[in-house]
Specification:
Layout: E1 9-13, H1 20-31, E2 34-37, H2 38-46, H3 50-57, H4 59-73, E3 79-82, H5 91-100, E4 101-107, H6 110-117, H7 124-128, H8 131-148, E5 151-154, H9 159-170, H10 177-181
Helix pairs in contact: 1-9, 2-4, 3-4, 4-5
C-alpha cells in the first residue's frame, strides 16, 4: 500500500521550461510537503534577480550559491525542491543532492520547453541564445540530467498527469485527489 509521507527531499531537475516549479508546487501540495524553488530561494538570499547576479558576480558565483542552497536543503525536513536548469550540471551539486535526497529528472521534449521559455528576460541563457543555440544546450544537458537523476519521469501534456505519474513512481498517494487538480 502506498505511503503518503515524503521519505527524503526530492530535487527536480531538467531543462528550463520543463515544468519543475509548476510540477513541484503541485506535487508538494499533493503529498503535504513544503516546496522550494531553488532560484527564488537564491534570489531572496542574494537580494537581487538572477540576471543581476550573473552581471555583477558572474555565473561561477551563482553556481556556488546553488551549491550552498542545495546543502541547506539537506538540513531541512523532506521537501520538494525545483532546481534551476543548470544547478545539477555541476558534479558536486548532483552528488550532494543525491546524498541529502533523491533527484528526479523531468524529461520534457525541447519544443515544449522552448515554447515555455522563449522571450523570458529573466533567463540569461535565453536572452543570450537563439532557438538553435538553446536546442544545442538542451542536447548537451539532457545526458547530464539523466546521469544526475535516480528517477526519470517523462513530462505529460497535462500537469495533473505528470504529478500522478511521479506519485506512482514514488509509491505514494496524494493527500487528497483535489490537491493534484488544483
Amino acid at each position: 500500500m502506498p505511503d503518503n509521507k515524503l521519505p527524503v527531499t526530492l530535487f527536480l531537475c531538467g531543462f528550463m521550461g520543463c515544468g519543475k516549479s509548476a510540477v513541484g508546487r503541485r506535487l508538494a501540495k499533493a503529498v503535504g510537503a513544503d516546496f522550494i524553488d531553488l532560484d527564488a530561494y537564491i534570489v531572496k538570499k542574494a537580494g537581487m534577480p538572477i540576471p543581476e547576479i550573473f552581471e555583477k558576480q558572474g555565473e561561477p558565483a551563482f553556481r556556488e550559491m546553488e551549491t550552498r542552497a542545495i546543502r541547506e536543503m539537506g538540513n531541512r525536513e523532506p521537501l520538494i525542491v525545483a532546481t534551476g536548469g543548470g544547478a545539477l550540471l555541476r558534479p558536486e551539486n548532483a552528488a550532494l543532492a543525491n546524498r541529502v535526497g533523491k533527484v528526479l529528472f523531468l524529461d520534457v521534449p525541447f519544443p515544449v520547453c522552448y515554447r515555455r521559455i522563449r522571450g523570458d528576460k529573466n533567463r540569461p541563457l535565453v536572452v543570450q541564445n537563439t532557438r538553435k543555440g538553446l536546442e544545442q544546450i538542451y542536447r548537451t544537458r539532457k545526458p547530464l540530467y539523466q546521469a544526475a537523476a535516480t528517477i526519470t519521469v517523462r513530462g505529460r501534456p497535462r500537469l495533473p498527469d505528470t504529478v500522478t505519474t511521479i506519485l506512482r513512481v514514488l509509491g505514494m498517494k496524494p493527500a487528497s485527489r483535489t490537491n493534484i487538480k488544483k
